[in-house]
Design goal:
By secondary structure, the protein is of the alpha/beta class. The chain is 25% helix and 16% strand.
Amino acid sequence: MTVDDFQYLPRSFAPTYDAIPALDEPPVWTEPRRPTSEATVAALTSAGVYLPGSQAPFDAERERREPTWGDPTWRQIPATVDQDDIDAVHLHINTDPLLEDLDVALPLQTLRTLEKAGRIGTVAATHVSVMGYQERSCSVWRTETGPAIARFLGELDVDVLLLAPA
């Protein structure tokens, strides 16, 4: 399947993105400290999910003005969230499917099913949402956002983080 990165953005943005060299770095990985069947599992979605009324939406307006910038903030999403409690902001994906079924982007129901079946230990009480597109160097992510999310998940005693890319 071909992915059209500019389906939801003006085609005039393409030359800006195409001129940026690809990053060539190894993936980040560490072995879990517990077997999956005993692990506390959290999920991180890059679909820009947030809770309207109690959380600010991700900043799509700035990204429209500065197309190589992405909102580096993050949101806490409780495991008990209902479908009607969420909204999503993302300029690079169609958010309609996840607004109909959150599991498309943040598989909380699937994690609950795995917990009941004994395949994972516990579903974390809180999960994380970010806006997937980020500026190329990821400098704010490397120095602020990533460490803050890691500290937060450590405080929750999360063993496994499931990445759910948008």
